[in-house]
Specification:
The chain contains 11 helices and 7 strands. It is of the alpha/beta class.
Length: 317
């Protein structure tokens, strides 16, 4: 690769393998096929929602290549894995991409160097101070979004900043990115997936197709790629809790304890009863469980009996 001096051994290995694949095809085509094959392999292993469509895309990409060339693509991914395992906090693919002049100059594409992204992320997260940990304790997570993600350097820098604060970014943060360029979005997806960052990357224009809704779900479209750690036990738990809250909000349910009116002292002579008084609207009726038995909490709503439901909790040892 002319004009490029590898920074370390892993870059040297990557570039050597990359060059070996470029004899019959352009560098741009080899890079495009590499990042898309790698991203499709990862996402189809964890997200089955659009498995068939993505599998067909993968087959179309690999069809022109021979077995030896496919081994070369596998070696590129292996080198990327080893490079990030050796030094997790770096923009390995982004640095090679820009130094190989693969960026789209007509669109003004330029990746911010990683050390600057790291500094910016540190300033933002440190500036939030103790509120970062307080937000995690309150909500169970914090979300970090980059609407023009490139190779993912800014989100990787954020992961490094959280790590420096002794916050487990693989459990306590959701990383969200978007880019109009599918190639760089796949680069970000590969790197965030290998670093164990829960989240997703969307391919699309952030101005005309902005991401909306609850950050714990994404839009579920084929153009949105969910990382493996997005399906961890904690992330699943957070999504279940979000759904429960949504159900309660939609029916106007309340879990406040019922407040019965105070008992009146009996009069010397009871007044004549004209009719049964209306019973107060119960908000919650609770039966306290004994040890090892499930507790049943009947939830009524202010909107009427039709919206009533039950929640089951197991207090067993």
């Amino acid at each position: 690769m002319k004009g490029m001096t590898p920074r370390n051994e892993k870059e040297r290995e990557f570039i050597k393998t990359f060059d070996s694949l470029c004899y019959t095809r352009s560098r741009w085509q080899i890079w495009t096929d590499f990042v898309h094959m790698s991203a499709l392999s990862i996402v189809n292993a964890v997200d089955k929602t659009h498995f068939e469509e993505r599998e067909e895309r993968f087959k179309r990409i690999v069809k022109p290549y021979k077995e030896k060339e496919m081994q070369g693509f596998a070696q590129l991914l292996k080198t990327t894995v080893l490079a990030l395992d050796e030094n997790p906090f770096q923009d390995f693919l982004g640095e090679i991409y820009m130094r190989c002049d693969l960026g789209n100059e007509s669109n003004g594409q330029f990746f911010t160097p990683y050390h600057i992204c790291e500094f910016m992320a540190k300033c933002i997260i440190d500036g939030h101070g103790s509120n970062t940990k307080a937000d995690i304790e309150k909500n169970g997570y914090i979300s970090i979004c980059d609407p023009c993600i490139g190779g993912g350097a800014m989100l990787i820098g954020a992961a490094q900043a959280l790590h420096a604060m002794e916050i487990n970014y693989q459990q306590d943060a959701v990383f969200i990115g978007q880019d109009i360029d599918a190639n760089v979005a796949m680069m970000a997806y590969i790197q965030l997936s290998l670093l164990g960052c829960p989240g997703y990357i969307k391919v699309g224009n952030s101005l005309t197709e902005p991401m909306t809704g609850n950050v714990l779900f994404g839009d579920g479209k084929e153009t949105t790629y969910y990382t493996p750690m997005f399906f961890s036990e904690k992330m699943e738990f957070l999504r279940h809790m979000a759904l429960v809250r949504k159900v309660f909000e939609s029916v106007g349910a309340t879990t406040e304890p019922r407040k019965d009116p105070p008992l009146e002292q009996p009069e010397t002579q009871a007044p004549e009863v004209q009719g049964a008084p209306e019973a107060p609207a119960a908000a919650v009726e609770e039966k306290k469980p004994t040890r090892g038995e499930p507790a049943v909490i009947e939830v009524s709503t202010r909107k009427g009996k039709q919206a009533a439901g039950q929640l089951m909790f197991d207090f067993g040892e």
